Amino acid sequence: MAELLRSRLGGNGRNDDDGATLALVIEGGGMRGMLSATMASVLADHGLVDAVDLVVGTSAGAANATAVAAGTIGAFSESYATVFASPEYIGAGRMLRRKSMVDTRGITTRSSELFEWSLALRDGAPRLAAVATDVVTAKSVPLTDFTDATDLADSVIASSQLPLAGGLPVTVRGRRWLDGGLIEAVPVASAAALGATHAIVLVTRPFGTAPSYGPADRVIERYLRRVNPELGDLYRSRPERYRSTVAEMRAGSYAGVHTLTFAPGADDPIPGRTETHVDLLRAAREAAVATATRGLAEADLV
């Protein structure tokens, strides 16, 4: 994996005729997505994004992937703290105004405007995919080959639509969707389905950890069972599925794809899904810069 990256860095990037398809795979997690956005920004600063053929993200990771493809990931990674850590977009106070706790559409629309997401559709950009959960089939689906900027933004919304906190499932391309992280938080399998042979993987939880399962999750599980019983089962098994799949990615291979995986350190500050404390977000961003830089050095890529 590292040999392929070094070869592309020293050659023609994604235009190298080496027979490989290299993906950048990005986990989200709401405001925790700032960590993967920051790591992606560090990779971009070192030229690695120019080596990537395909960028695949789930939930906030889909927004990050779009900013990577647009070439604006540096500024976008800062916006988690400077723009979106605001009661305008996130917080229980929105529910008092009869709104969803998270304004998925508002965040996406503002991101598209501020960070020129339409550039992700330009010639020469890496192929882009946003992974969402089809509520009828209970399958994760990589949405790609966007017709225009509206289709792209709608697909990111589909990938990011949290159950309950974000509102009802959204309809895009004639199908109903919820957050891709319900089934595939780290979408290496979707990257494989799109032809990836190798992947740089950015996860937003320290190695060995997994999503918790508490009282709020039981409420979400009951809701999902009403939507589709299979979704409830998948949500309940999410912590163990996450732990085992990330362990395989860390070991170097998952779903037939060779992987190099970056994760926050065990002692790094980790934002919550709806984090709005700006100081914590800034500290987490600084730690993510250090983590990504250290990971590149350990792989002999800087």
UniProtKB/TrEMBL annotation:
Residue ranges constituting the PNPLA domain according to the UniProt record: 24-192
GO cellular component, one term: membrane
Pfam families named in the record: Patatin
Active-site feature positions: S59, D179
Superkingdom as given in the UniProt entry: Bacteria
GO function terms (MF aspect): triacylglycerol lipase activity
SUPFAM superfamilies reported for this sequence: FabD/lysophospholipase-like (SSF52151)
Keywords: Hydrolase, Lipid degradation, Lipid metabolism
InterPro entries the record matches: Acyl_Trfase/lysoPLipase (IPR016035), PLPL (IPR033562), PNPLA_dom (IPR002641)
Motif (GXSXG): 57-61
Motif, GXGXXG: chain positions: 28-33
Entry keyword Transcription regulation: no
Recorded coiled-coil stretches: none
Protein name: PNPLA domain-containing protein
